[in-house]
Amino acid sequence: MRADHVNSFREQASLFLGQVREMDGCGFAQVGRQVNKDGSEEVVVVTSWTCLDAIYAWVGGSDLLSSPLLAGQLQDLLEHHDIQHYEAIGPAEADAAAGDHGQGPTPGPGTA
Questions:
Q1: Residue 73 to residue 8: CA distance in whole angstroms
Q2: Domain range enclosing 61
Q3: What is the pLDDT along the chain (112 residues), one digit of tens a residue?
Q4: Rounded to two decimals, what is the model's pTM?
Q5: CATH number for the domain including 16?
Q6: HSE-up of 24 (CA within 13 Å, CB side)?
Q7: Number of folded domains that form the chain
């Protein structure tokens, strides 16, 4: 995304992630970024789900290839986007079952 869209994207992405993490079946949701020399950024939104039914509920159907979920202001801030949906198989299922909605482990006493 262009450098002049970075702050707006961060604000919208924070709201988006909060909503996604509360969805049933969401095992993980995060945004990663790479800053370019010109101040623009490349971002990736990563979500993993405990089952395909949870993904279908999130996208509103089983057509995963043409169901954009970065609608509205988020999508408008990006110069290009590519959407791919995958079902997580393995340990993420246990994390989601325990109620960890992509926020990571809770720090213990004496940790920050």
A1: 9
A2: 3-97
A3: 788 888 888 888 888 888 889 999 998 888 888 998 998 888 888 888 888 888 888 877 787 766 656 555 667 777 777 777 666 677 655 555 555 544 544 444 444 4
A4: 0.61
A5: 3.30.70
A6: 5
A7: 1
